Amino acid sequence: MSAPNSPTLGLFRSDARPGPLTIPPPNLEGTATATATATAATWSDPRQFVVGAPPNPPSPLALRALTSPSNRRATLAAPTLPLGHADSIRKRSSLPADIDLSTLDYITACDENLICPICRCPLDKPVRLACDHIFCDECLNRALEAQRNGERNCPSCRTRVHGWSEDAGKQKHKTSIPRILTQMLDELVVRCPNGKAGCKWQDKRGEVQDHVDRYCDYTLLACPESECGEVVPRKHRGKSCLHFHTKCEDCEQSVLRLDLEAHQESECPKRAKDCSKCGANIPVRELISHLSSKCPETIVSCPGSPYGCSFQSPHADLKPHTKTCPIAAMAPFLSAQQARQDTQEAQQKLLQRKVDVLEGGFSSIQSLLYTSDAGTRTPTTPLEAMSDPMLRSGSNNGAASASSTAPATENPPFDSSTEHLLFLHDSLRNEISRVENALAVLDARTTMTLLNESLRAKEEMAHTNAAINGMRMQLHWLMSARLQAQREQSGPRAGPSVGGGGAGGAAGASAPMLRPVRRSSEESRQKL
Amino acid sequence: MSASKRIVKELTEVTSNPPAGTKVQLVDESDVHVWEVLLDGPEQSVYAGGHFKLLLTLPKDYPFKPPVLNFQTKIYHPNVSNDDKGSMCLGMLRSDEWKPPNKLMAVINMARNLLIEPNPDDAVETAIADQYKSNRQEFEKTARDWTKKFAGRK
Ligand SMILES: [Zn+2]
Ligand SMILES: [Zn+2]
Ligand SMILES: [Zn+2]
Ligand SMILES: [Zn+2]
Ligand SMILES: [Zn+2]
Ligand SMILES: [Zn+2]
Ligand SMILES: [Zn+2]
């Protein structure tokens, strides 16, 4: 925790939701009935204590409140302690630590969406990541700390988490949580964490910290004697220390003064009390079991009461009744029957689910079949498909006796779901062989068309080849003609320069020989 | 504290609605970190008729670290080490692939699915994996023999 300064405290203040301060602060002197007016007088404006720079170090309590998850608590609990007094107060009163909400006993069934995927408890201080996954703050921190190689990925989808730091003060990975979520979480009903000690309180989870901190009779507080160091439940926390041993007047056992009343109420072996109903003197240790079962005056009901007998009487008169009551005689049998029925119902539900799944799969396969081959089949098929699949397969398959007797009902009365399944299986098999046939036909057809297509292509190719050949010939003709023309031109030019009359004559002789060639090529061009 | 609460929740979930052919119980009632999983060889697999005992050990920092799965019954399988540990470590059981939100129910289902369809590309027993890929018949025969020999009903 850093040194105290106003910024931190300012932050603390701004965090604090200004809630109505109707609840008195913990009564530190042990008089549990302090009134709100007295409180108001003592701690006029709680926030003034916080805002100004404190002369003393802030109390551990105030600091703890700073880190406290519950903003509400911060407003209510921390500012009520004047900083100067805090140390001495802390010695005398020890508030319980923050409640681990995951250890609470939840009474309302919690929606799956409010459950943290890591601890599988209703979310505690939910944190939302950029990828929209939500975890408890602590669960997420632990999951990210446990990741190796410095990677920080969302535990659910492995999207990178930016801005996370082991130092809670530097964390920047959180995005805002929908208010409805926190409200739903706060409204879950829980039992008081001191339930085992005897507290019967149960209420909204958002209130539990307040209850434990301020009201719960069973919250352990520090003994009023500061030197003692022991703890005492709030309801026994008087003005003086009760942590000394004393002797029980009856059994001479040495008992802690704090526990003396409890000892005398229910544990002392020497102490007896008159039963409030039958008047018999019963040892206190056995009083509870006496009242619940043995006391002749306790009203009990006939063992056949769950099955219809409304007889109720004191314990003593029940025996004669059970001997004559027919329902009581039947009760063991009936309860066994009930148990059997329950298990069978559960099994039936399971089977029903299985059948549903199979039926769904079956019908989806069927619809797939009819949409894929509707085009290739005769027009009767779509009509067939429209009729009840069970009906049709029933008419195809006369072997299944149950369905052929009553094919018109929506759910043919099969003897068992197994038979039903077998039946479905059979019709499925028929379908598959049909598809097989259709596929074979389709295959043959495609092969044929392919063959035809390729034949035509081959023919066309031959045509093109021929055409290309013709063009090549022409090109050849043209090229040779051109070459000749060039030679012709170069011949007369070369002759005079060299000066050989014979050479000119030779060139002149060769030119007329080529003439017809050129002409023929011209003719062919004109033909084209 | 909350970790063991989660484990207890998962345990009740698995024991009250176990995946087909499995049974889960604690080895020692006082330790929720060691589960015994009894797995029947799936009908459609070569392990049909076998009864396999698996040990599912949850580390101290579960669910932040993956659970450890060991076959206590000998099994001929490319993804199960053929030693006295019989460890199966692939997919989500790898520490780099494990996600804290994963459920143990899913782990048990994965083990069961691997009996139906081994994953030879991610094998610990490479020899068995090669056989699985190249000589399926021989693999199936050995797997059936082992199942009869080591995982038959007792
Ligand atoms: Zn959590
Ligand atoms: Zn995510
Ligand atoms: Zn309480
Ligand atoms: Zn004391
Ligand atoms: Zn006594
Ligand atoms: Zn009585
Ligand atoms: Zn009766």
TrEMBL record, chain A:
Residue ranges, compositional bias (Gly residues): 497-507
InterPro entries tied to this protein: Znf-RING_euk, Znf_RING, Znf_RING/FYVE/PHD, Znf_RING_CS, Znf_TRAF
Residue stretches of biased makeup (Low complexity): 393-409
Residues covered by region (Disordered): 373-417, 485-528
Alphabetically ordered keywords of this record: Metal-binding, Zinc, Zinc-finger
Zinc fingers typed TRAF-type, residue spans: 262-319
Domain RING-type: 116-158
PROSITE patterns named among the record's database cross-references: ZF_RING_1, ZF_RING_2, ZF_TRAF
Key word ATP-binding present: no
Gene3D superfamilies the UniProt entry points to: Zinc/RING finger domain, C3HC4 (zinc finger) (3.30.40.10)
Record-annotated TRAF-type domain positions: 262-319
Bias kind Basic and acidic residues: ranges: 519-528
Gene Ontology terms, MF aspect: zinc ion binding
Keyword Cytoplasm appears in the UniProt entry: no
Name used for this protein in its record: RING-type domain-containing protein
UniProtKB/TrEMBL annotation, chain B:
Molecular function terms from GO: ATP binding; ubiquitin conjugating enzyme activity
Domain UBC core positions: 2-152
Presence of the UniProt keyword Transferase in the record: yes
This protein's UniProt keywords: ATP-binding, Nucleotide-binding, Transferase, Ubl conjugation pathway
Any Pfam family: UQ_con
Class in the EC hierarchy, top level: transferase
EC number: 2.3.2.23
Keyword Nucleotide-binding: yes
Protein name: E2 ubiquitin-conjugating enzyme
Native source species: Coniosporium apollinis (strain CBS 100218)
